Amino acid sequence: MKWQLPLGFATVCVALWAGAVEDGKGRQKLYVLSSHGNDVTVVDVATNQILKTIQVGKDPHGVAAPKAEDVLWVATEGDGGLSAIDPVRDEVVAQYSFFGNRPNEIEITSDGRIIYVPVLGEGVYKVFDTVQKRIIATIPTDGYPHNVVVSADDRYMYLSPYDRGSTSAAKSAAQGLPTTLNKKIYIVDTNNHTVAGTIATGNTPRPIALSKDGTRLYVNTDDWMGFLVLDIPNRTVLHRVAYNLTPEEKTIPSRSHGIGVTPDQKEVWSTDTNHSVVFVYKRMPEPPEEIARIATGKIPYWITFTPDGKTCYVANTGDDTVSAIDVATKKERTRIFIGKGKAPKRLLVLSAKQ
Amino acid sequence: MPLQAVSKMWRPAPFSARASKLNGAAATLQGILLRTPAGLRAFCLHCPHELCFLNLTEDERSGHPLLVCPCHFSTFDPVANGARLSGPAERGAYLFRLEVSGNRVHIREVEEQAL
């Protein structure tokens, strides 16, 4: 289908674009990590067209950026690396290769100084100082260190290690992996990088998302189709929210493996892998209430939002696509093919200065 | 399922199978019927690692398609009864028992562990 723009509309577009650049923000770009590959795909948010791919290292698994959005950090699980990308030129500008056996999803303080790197194969979170360019602390946990999010004020990091599940301890040990199980979230004080407390989750935690006010942590877990609502001040599980599955869906084994809070803090979005659905919940009043279910590509995993909250991107690892969903209408706008066999998982949107 | 559906080598014939768990609960399992050089095989598509759906993917090195999990990349060989080739799965792909009767293929029991 071809589109013809009336002249007046084109003029308005130019004016809006100029305004965006004056604000210090430029073109919004989506960065999609190929979990089974060695690159990051850059997508233009305005058009949902692929701009380029950036070679970073083997099996990219973690992505984070500071508030200034002047650098994008990517952890590569297959080679123990951490790459810094200039998001204007979309080129790697620095690489560090001393993170060890399988770095996973990373998190960064808003000033960009500190990065927490979960190192799955070693059972620790390593704390990387981006100015000193060295690891300044190591935090041991149970299970397989995997995910982490930071509070808006940078005071706490919330660690979410998963574990070997039904794999035997002997087999995990034979693979050089941790053998302990984990069914809790760790709360770490970033002043001294020590554990300030834990919250028991019953099941093994997976992806997590934190409310901006720092009072609620939303947690996908193994063996639960839905998510938990954690009360951070009281360090308890407040609600166990179950997806409203059809009778047919209930018979098909699946997992919840991707969760996010919309930038306006009004909604929680959470994926259901084998039913290829993302569920949307109104966050308040509690418990969260389901307000929509949206079909996605095959095996939806991680999700992220544009900073303006207008678009939700869902990585569909089963068919190598990313769903671009309109947050207001809850309709899928388009599906972006990332590349055969790339298995997109983690993803993030930045607004690079031009 | 008509035998004609798998007359061509490696052309997958997808199906859904109803089963009962040991506790009596109903389960629906996704599967594919394949004609391989080793004969007809019916594989459950739920990965033994973390239940993601396996994809049948061309593989240049082995010279024939493999079952690959898109979540954590466990790989299984359909020619060798779904034996695990690599990845975090602890075992091979789950198999359905099948019977050929006349011009039809009947999907029977699935390995108990799949449930």
Describe the SSE topology.
The complex is a heterodimer of chains A (354) and B (115).
Chain A: H1 7-22, E1 28-34, E2 39-44, E3 49-55, E4 60-64, E5 72-76, E6 81-86, E7 91-96, E8 107-108, E9 114-119, E10 124-129, E11 134-140, E12 144-150, E13 156-162, H2 169-174, E14 184-189, E15 194-200, E16 205-210, E17 216-221, E18 226-231, E19 236-242, H3 247-250, E20 259-261, E21 267-272, E22 277-282, E23 289-295, E24 300-305, E25 311-316, E26 321-326, E27 331-337, E28 344-351
Chain B: E1 13-20, E2 26-36, E3 39-44, E4 55-57, E5 66-68, E6 75-77, E7 83-86, E8 95-101, E9 104-110
Antiparallel strand pairs in B: 1-2, 2-3, 3-8, 4-5, 5-6, 6-7, 8-9
Mind explaining what this structure looks like?
The complex is a heterodimer of chains A (354) and B (115). With 354 residues, chain A is mainly β. Chain A has helices at 7-22, 169-174, 247-250, and strands at residues 28-34, 39-44, 49-55, 60-64, 72-76, 81-86, 91-96, 107-108, 114-119, 124-129, 134-140, 144-150, 156-162, 184-189, 194-200, 205-210, 216-221, 226-231, 236-242, 259-261, 267-272, 277-282, 289-295, 300-305, 311-316, 321-326, 331-337, 344-351. Chain A has a four-stranded antiparallel sheet with strand order 3-2-1-28, with no helix packed on it. In chain A, a hairpin with a 4-residue loop joins strand 18 and strand 19. The two termini of chain A are 31 Å apart. Chain B contains no helices and nine strands. Chain B has strands spanning 13-20, 26-36, 39-44, 55-57, 66-68, 75-77, 83-86, 95-101, 104-110. At the A-B interface, loops of A face strand 2 of B.
Number of strands of chain A: 28
Q: Mean pLDDT across all residues of chain B, rounded?
A: 92
Looking at the chains present, what oligomeric state does this protein adopt? heterodimer
Strand order of the largest sheet of chain B: 1-2-3-8-9
**Gap between N and C termini of chain A, in Å?**
31 Å
Question: Helical amount among residues of chain A, as a percent range?
Answer: under 10%
Q: Which of globular, elongated, flat, extended, rod-shaped describes the shape of chain B? A: flat
Largest sheet features of chain A: 4 strands, antiparallel
Low-confidence stretches of chain A: 1-24
The count of helical stretches of chain A stands at 3
| Poorly predicted runs of chain B | none
The major beta sheet of chain B can be summarized as: 5 strands, antiparallel
Radius of gyration of chain A: 20 Å
How would you classify the helix and strand content of chain A by structural class? mainly beta
Sheet-strand content of chain B, in percent, reads over 45%
Question: Which percent band covers the strand fraction of chain A?
Answer: over 45%
* Order of neighbouring strands in the sheet with most strands of chain A: 3-2-1-28
Helical percentage of chain B: under 10%
Largest interface: which pair?
A: A-B, 23 and 19 residues
The average pLDDT score of chain A comes to 92
